[in-house]
Amino acid sequence: MLKSFVLSQFLFFLMIPVVYGLETDAQVFVNASVKLDDMTKIQARRIFSMRQTSWPDHSLITVYVMESSHQTHKVFSTQLLGLFPYQLDRIWNKLVYSGLGEEPIKVKNEQEMLDKISNTPGAIGYLLNNLQIDNANVKIVFVTEG
Fold first, then answer.
1. pLDDT tens, position by position, 40-97
2. 2-38 b/e with 16+ CB inside 10 Å = b?
3. Are 91 and 65 in contact (CB under 8 A)?
4. How many helices (H) and strands (E) does the chain have?
């Protein structure tokens, strides 16, 4: 029984890229004021789960995300963070309802995400890598496994 459960969970996780779209991956974007070129997956999880609220230079982080049902958010959370959207929702709800933190700012679409990141110093968000970004106020931060 346990063996079949483990096998079913393994097969489920193999299907995630198929369900959420293998054709594109998400990338982390930040405002040009952020002095980072890369971060680890652990750092990205801490930032997007609202557990890290400032950059290494002590400037504040403003986190932008899309609704949990948005396809870009699903791709980002599963492929890049390794978390399901509902897991992020639970983390944010726990912070808000316990009074220990805030949830990220939600945007409606990719264009609004790009606008918010480009106009907010210290901002971070994500976009699909198949989008052509020609904006001097944003840059890609590469997420590494380390």
1. 999 999 999 999 999 999 999 999 999 999 999 999 999 999 999 999 999 999 999 9
2. eeeeeeeeeeeeeebeeebbeebebbbbbbeebeeee
3. no
4. 5, 6
Residue 62 main-chain phi, psi, to 5 deg: -110, 115
Asked if 143 and 38 touch (Cβ cutoff 8 Å), the reply is yes
**Which residue has tokens 């700012």?**
105
Please, what is the end-to-end C-alpha distance for the chain in angstroms?
A: 35
Strand pairing class (38-40; 138-144) = parallel
pLDDT > 70 in the chain, percent: 82
Q: Token pair of 132, please?
A: 């052509």
CA distance 25 to 124: 17
In 16-129, the DSSP E strands lie at 26-31, 38-40, 62-66, 105-107, 123-128
Do residues 55 and 122 lie in contact, with contact meaning Cβ atoms separated by under 8 Å?
yes
Q: Which residues pair with 30 in a beta bridge?
A: 124, 139
Q: What are phi and psi of 125, to 5 degrees?
A: -165, -160
